[in-house]
Write the structure tokens for this entry.
Amino acid sequence: MKKPVYLAIAVFFSFGLSAQNLTPRPEVVIPSVPVSIAEFESLQTSLAKTPEGAASLMVLAVHLYGKDQTLGNQTLISSVLIKNRQKSNKPTAYKGEDLGNGDRYLIGQLDKYKMLANAYFKGSEPANGYSPSNPLTVETFTNPYSGEESSGRIKLFVATRGAASFRPITVEKDSDGLWRAKEFSSLCVGMMPAK
């Protein structure tokens, strides 16, 4: 019984890649899950030198939000473009900045869809209850319309086995030279329930 299921998953995954006309980017391995904002920002300094690193950090921030909303909120703010943040003294603010209202609404969706905390890591799928492989790894792809990295902005597609297609995220090179998320709404929508 397991062979037909694995074959169906392999065919579905392969068809999904070709149907979306996707080209793989280098995988990003997260060596260890940060337990503080200082650890996250240290990791950000090394990983956000590339677009796929920035996308992976946003995925990690979603993961952290699912485990600890305070730390996750700080990492989400740190993962979004500086120009997309707003000055704030709200309890959700970090270093005097918060997400814009639209992004804050999206983050509220993470409370509704608990599976999203792990759904974008390699090995995570509905059949295994969205349990990712270790070390945590994020796979990203581009398509012919993604744009060029050299322009300072590119759309990537984050792999997931919990939806019919991979989820887009647009990242941009920020004023400090690090890549960060510009648009990530598709990472915050629901997926197939865990089995």
